[in-house]
Amino acid sequence: MLSIRNLFSAFLALYCSSVRGYSRGEVRNQTFDYVVVGAGTAGIPVGIRLAAAGYNVAIIEAGGFYEDSEPILSSTPAFVFQPNEANDWAFQTEPQAGLNERRIPYPRGKCVGGTSGRHAMIYQKGPTGAFQKWADEVGDQSYTLPELEAYFRKSVHFTSPDASKRAANATPGYDPSVFASSKGPLSVTYANFAVSFSSWVRRAMASIGIQDAGNFDNGKILGSQYFQHTLTSPQQQRGSSESTYLSTFSDLPNLTLFTHTLGIKILFDEAKNAIGVVAENTGMPFTLRANNEVILAAGAFQSPQLLLVSGVGPKATLEQHSIEVVYENPDVGQHMVDHVWFGPAVRVKLETTSRWNDDPQYRLRVYETYREKHEGPLTSNGGDFGAFEKIPQDLRENFTASTLEDLAAFPDDYPEIEYVVAPTFLGDFRSPQPSDGYQYASIAAALMAPVSRGNLTIRSPSMHDAPLINPNVFTSRTDQQVAVAAFKRMRQMLASAEIADVLVGEEYFPGKEVVGEGEEEEGVLRWLREAASVYYHAGATCRMGREGRGAVVDTKGRVRGVDRLRVVDASIMPFLVPSHIQSVIYAVAEKLADSIIQDAKGKFETEFQQELKV
Hints:
The N and C termini lie far apart (50 Å). Helix 14 crosses helix 15. The radius of gyration is 24 Å and the shape is globular. The strands form seven sheets. Strands 1, 2, 3, 11, 12, 13, 14 and 27 form an eight-stranded mixed β-sheet that branches. Strands 9, 18, 19, 20, 21, 22, 25 and 26 form an eight-stranded antiparallel β-sheet that branches. It is an alpha/beta fold. It is built from 19 helices and 27 strands. It has a domain at 191-237 and 340-449 and 474-531: Glucose Oxidase, domain 3, CATH 3.30.560.10. Residues 1-21 form the signal peptide. One of its GO terms (biological process) is secondary metabolite biosynthetic process. Its cofactor is FAD. Belongs to the GMC oxidoreductase family. FAD binds at residue 115.
């Protein structure tokens, strides 16, 4: 029996979908030109572009609209790290050997917008050399940054920062020429607030040799700078693929969105053509046929999972679960990679998010300011400033020859570390915020050139069962040595005279008594294994590449060994670009949407397109 809450939720979903304009999917067997599985960071842009080109498109999404279930928590930038159970898959890793056998929570968006409805919204491009490395590895020079630039621009529009609402010493650097012709749906701008701790860390970074990068827009990212974010303007709310792309193109009559609908199996014919998807809504299975192609955009975990339960993957795995083998590819779910982050925390003489925890009245006041004026600390995700660098030479002296060899494989402009400033206590990412009246802040480092690789597989032949996620982070000696050096680097920042005036006492976390005054490598490593976490940038589980070189898809996202099936999401990256990866996902989604449309010309023509010609 449905509860009153469920009845209300069903009514609200029906009402909201009707006012949003596009078609709401009906639970019955149907046929479309394209069936897209996953209404996330990539799935919505791809589906939108195909529908705008005249194709009849279905997008399947397991979740609902985050505005319906958690509107304040989901849309307010400052709440990005708060638990949001209504819109999250609640995945966790298998015990991680490199992290003291801990299981790490892995937030993933279960909502329209996918993880773009859950992540921290930082938007910046990776370095030029990373995209050249991508192009060289996959054998396709259209993946260089100059060639991809048109797709970055196609996806976004930019709003300059409002200097009147930011501190005078917090002026961001950006390159307006990069956005000059950008008129895309995704809103990119800066928060109407600047974290005071960031300006002090900026000075401390400069004192130890990390200089101003100028901007993070043009492929030269070594150095420090303020981050752009995907915020709607002027509302200063979360800019997800749903609140930007889908709202911009909400009047497409040939786009159908199925919410609360799980794709459970890809259907193939005898010639190994993908011909549709079996979906399920409230326990009711139905079939969505695809005249042209099926496109997986379910993310780095569920795109490979759906391939596996549908018969594409390692033969031994498929046979173990009594799944009929459609095509044997041992690389499905392999090569998983993520950045790893960690960092110290300090007490400061500045206002941070600690005040929200200790003062409910203040929390109410800042929310009223945010709601009425679209300004103040709630417009910021907290991580408004950061830096990228290669570990300096003096800290490389203790690296082993194999570590130096691993790092030498990356381009000269490819950072090994990112630093992010946070006006909060990050700690070990699971301990509660201190409530002792002090104000807390952190500096975190993330490994940008990780060598460790993991994998993903299935625990059963059902999409209802979470996959087995093993990023295997922090297991390579190279990653460990770079992490130790990064930790020492952050301590150099906090020891700088440029920041001393705002610190209260010595390092609060982990504290020198934990790691040791001498910062011996083993002492730091013991702490890192207990405190570090994944960066939630999982990728490469259906990676792109040349045939016979560990690839699942080709450079057009087509799944090797079968036909009329593509993957378009973070899983196809051959490696993680050293950046916050949403910018890359949007650009590649735009690029591959163009590719799908070009491939269909002269091959597929819909009744809707024929009507447009009349």
